[in-house]
Amino acid sequence: MSSGAVDPCRAFNSTRCEKKDAWVNPVAQIKGFVPKVDSMVSNRFLRSLANLPATAVAATSVLIAGGKCGYSPGHGLFVCEGSPLAQQGGTTVGDVFLTNEISKDEVLDGTANSEALLSHETRHAAQWAGHGNLLYPILYGVEALKSTVLTGSYGCANWFEFDAGMQEGRYSSC
Ligand SMILES: [Zn+2]
């Protein structure tokens, strides 16, 4: 299913639907650039290859901080705690979900009811791969800024969060 076919209001309270115009893939207008996010979900090998630089940055940040990692084989995602790069509820960089408010064990053993969260973060990993490790953080930053201006939250009108699933990403206050 292409993301454009999804009703962006599904995750919104009625007032947020007034922000509908904000739901545009920021690179959709660039001629000839088609982010291959869907194929990066299905092809895990390509995804990890494309994400090597970002994954290395994330892993290094965990190593330096003395954090700990585990691995979710079902998602092809490393789950690490202790990285200074982790923001708010957690941040995915390359193929690494850097947890913040919950421990890696709570994520991996499902204590934190984390199956939906892991699929959300795996979609972010595919976004990293599909847009390119250099371009993606810039685009995400632009969307986060736009979203903050519109809603006061970096995620509520952020196309990448919408694409990864608002409910799954626990944006319940949007
Ligand atoms: Zn997210």
Task: Walk me through this protein's architecture.
By secondary structure, this protein is of the alpha+beta class. It has one domain. Helices cover 41% and strands 10% of the residues. It has a four-stranded mixed beta sheet, with helices on both faces. A hairpin with a 2-residue loop joins β3 and β4. It is globular. The N terminus is likely disordered. Bound molecules: zinc ion. The site of zinc ion (ZN) has 5 residues, from α5 and α7.
| Uncertain stretches of 5 or more adjacent residues | 1-20
Helix content: 40-55%
Q: Report strand order across the widest sheet.
A: 1-2-4-3
In total, how many beta strands?
4
Average pLDDT confidence is 84
Tell me the distance between the termini. 24 Å
Task: List the total number of helices.
Answer: 7
SSE order, one letter for each helix or strand: HHHEEEEHHHH
The small-molecule ligands in this entry are: zinc ion
Choose one word for the global shape.
globular
Beta percentage is 5-15%
Q: What structural category characterises the helix and strand content?
A: alpha+beta
Rounded radius of gyration (Å): 15 Å
Strand count, sense and barrel status of the largest sheet are: 4 strands, mixed
